[in-house]
Amino acid sequence: MSIPVGHYQYDPIDRDFLQARIAEFEGQVQRRLDGTLSEDEFKPLRLMNGLYLQLHAYMLRVAIPYGILDSRQLRKLGEIARRYDRDYGHFTTRQNIQFNWIRLEDTPAILRELAEVDMHAIQTSGNCIRNVTADEYAGAAADELVDPRVHAEILRQWSTLHPEFTFLPRKFKIAISGSPNDRVAARFHDIGILARPGADGAPVFRIFVGGGLGRTPIIGEELFDSVREEHLLATLEAILRVYNARGRRDNIYKARIKILVQAIGVEAYREAVEAELAQMDLERYRLTPEAVAAIRSRFAVPQLEAPADADAVLAQQRRDDPLFDRWVRSNTHVHRDPGHIIATVSLKPAGGIPGDATSAQIARLADLADAYSFGEIRITHLQNVVLGHVRKDRLRDLWLGLSEVGLAEANIGLIGDIVACPGLDYCALANARSIPIAQKLGARFADTALQAEIGALRINISGCINACGHHHAGHIGLLGVDKRGEEFFQLTVGGRAENGAAIGTILGAALPEDETVDAIARLVDCYLGRRESGETFLDTLTRLGHEPFREAAYETV
Amino acid sequence: MKLFELGERTAQVHDVLVTLAELAERDDARAVLLESADDPALLKPYLNRLDLVVLRFPGFRDGRGFTQARELREYLRFSGEIRAEGHILPDQAAFLRRCGVDSVVLPKDGNGDPALWEKQLRQFPVAYQRSVLPERSVGPGLRVEEVS
Amino acid sequence: MKRPVRLEPGQKLVLTANRLLDGRTVWWCADGTWNLHIGCAALLDADEAEALLSRASEQAQRDGVVGVYDTAVQAVVPPEPVTVREKIRAHGPTVHPEFAVETEQ
Ligand code: HEM
Ligand code: SF4
């Protein structure tokens, strides 16, 4: 098979490594079954290979490094859903996929199947460096300065079974982007990296540390403004070394790097990192241009050729078909090539489960990716799917193909594009169910014309304070709480993950589940009634402050 | 106490093992025990006379010992023996070795089976990052293997 | 770890865990086996539950289960857990009624 577009192509050395990892895991399972490993010992080991125990079964989280798959890999995920699970998978905000009904016994066989297509579940959980995420429009967006994927791959490799950083105080998440428009929530990560071109052609990196959500939401602070490419790995090693040595281990709720950065201050953290760097043998850690070039050479570049009238064809089709036009308006993004366009496929059908896809839909997406986007698929941190390089004159055919499998919802960035964690329907840590309330909200705002009228508005739902649904970062956030066995939801407004990252403000006391949808509808009505022309929900909120929205939410009829 | 050697170096037995705090008083001590919260830099004045640094792992999930070992090797250029003891798993054998640990005190339960430790040391043909060991590249990119 | 058990009138305790091999939710039955159906679960008083819980925890490895604990149920047929969480464990995800445990083959 030819080199895939968009992600690193494995060679036999990488494949041997995956096989060794599977053999290791199989041995660990064996030792758990024969009792040599206790559950307390096995749990961290299985988590490091993405295997959780949830309410009803094991859950396997498969890594999709920087969110990019090829069609062969996506088909394999569909097959695994069919053979080992219950015919569906769940795409997550960390650009991974989760299977909810996995048997421990089957896991080594599943990992072997994944390895056939160069996939794995390494470090998708556990107190180690997790799957690295990147801009979902990488290599395609018109606004991009540096394609972050080569460096994302370098970070993936460097962090894989890192001898020193596999037993950290807590999990560690890194995101990287190369666009001035932050689409990775860089400042909500343990380390967020923004790449831009340097003077000598090699990129330089701006590095944020100590961001995170969870029970203590904190916006990351800038540690360094311009780290040179050759020092990228040394700098990360130094940041992690300080954290591994000094991060708290007495209380898991205070163990993230964000707590350490807050405790000592970002200046002291920077000094500590610089002290490490001063002692390190920088030559040993140097990321050489040759190594970067070698990894870059394993990425195929799509040959973007489009007929001269591609743009005109698309314009005509949009005029002829208002439904298609509405989808194009919400679900596409400008490509760097004028004959191409970026299409986002919504996994948020009205009333459906956010981020879930059936094996039939997964197989169809793989076919459509082959037909329309060089066989490349991207998973977004908002639980949708991107086809990155679609020829403009063929976009309508793609849309028709998506319609056949119920994947043509026109709601990206709108109120129906809800982010929700698995919540109490699956998750052992949950206080409340996230999915049913997402379904009710989706159904309430099902009308795509209404959604378009409401405009940019993101709802994020988490089933507990761990914030897997990023409720702090939602324009409207819902946090599930348990009040004496009943499900309640706390509302926040004004969060955002984009440029100008902000943590949402709590509006007031949590509402019972069955009053929450109405309260949100009143919030939206309040905005629609009081907005001035051209204002988004966030604009109106900023202008008016929270008070009118609080009143609307708690107004009882 | 059963020792397992992670590399070439032969593990030594010491009658006198002191804590970091005791080290200054005991001129005869050649071996010191570091708790996971101890800063290895404090060993600087004593490195010349030390043959052995024992790193104690209070639990296998407490990974501070890995950083301590690397600091000893990389920053302090300690060339004596480094040993890990406490709650450690054979699954960590290669990590320990790559951070500069030479030997371990085998756990007394099923995790102390030397065959498991042996196997884990040979589990992976390559690594994706540099360690404190002498290494050479394998193919293009970041991958390395140990020079034997 | 041990929380005080406060049972309301009409409530009993049952023991529950997950199966090691496939992770499925199971309930402890009077014959000493673990079953997928809460209908089989033995209904226990608080003091009896305590002894049985510690025994079941000790035997967990041999019985192939993990994370044994007790939870309150309404003593009806079949027993109905008190908390939303345990209701969902007993019946399956509410968003997939086709996976309901009681109607599974
Ligand atoms: C269902 C099984 C899951 C469990 C048991 C779980 C567990 C957790 C826990 C304990 C935390 C808090 C960690 C901390 O703050 O130290 C957390 C945070 C998080 N999880 Fe999950 N999670 C699950 C599923 C998911 C899913 C499905 C997603 C993606 C949709 C996700 C994405 C995240 C993110 C983005 C965070 C926030 C990271 C931060 O605090 O910076 N998790 N999760
Ligand atoms: S936010 Fe809470 S309920 Fe939701 S998946 Fe994370 S841990 Fe589970």
From TrEMBL, chain A:
Residues 125-278, 418-553 form the Nitrite/sulphite reductase 4Fe-4S domain. It comes from the Bacteria. The keyword Phosphoprotein does not apply. Pfam families: NIR_SIR, NIR_SIR_ferr. Residues 58-117, 351-403 form the Nitrite/Sulfite reductase ferredoxin-like domain. The keyword Ribonucleoprotein does not apply. InterPro entries: NIR_SIR_4Fe-4S (IPR051329), NiRdtase/SiRdtase_haem-b_fer (IPR005117), Nit/Sulf_reduc_fer-like_dom_sf (IPR036136), NO2/SO3_Rdtase_4Fe4S_dom (IPR006067), NO2/SO3_Rdtase_4Fe4S_sf (IPR045854). Keywords: 4Fe-4S, Heme, Iron, Iron-sulfur, Metal-binding, Oxidoreductase. This is Nitrite/sulfite reductase. The lineage of its organism: Bacteria, Pseudomonadati, Pseudomonadota, Alphaproteobacteria, Acetobacterales.
TrEMBL record, chain B:
Pfam families: DUF934 (PF06073). InterPro entries: UCP030820. It comes from the Bacteria. This is DUF934 domain-containing protein.
TrEMBL record, chain C:
InterPro entries: DUF2849. It comes from the Bacteria. Pfam families: DUF2849. This is DUF2849 domain-containing protein. It comes from Gluconobacter potus.
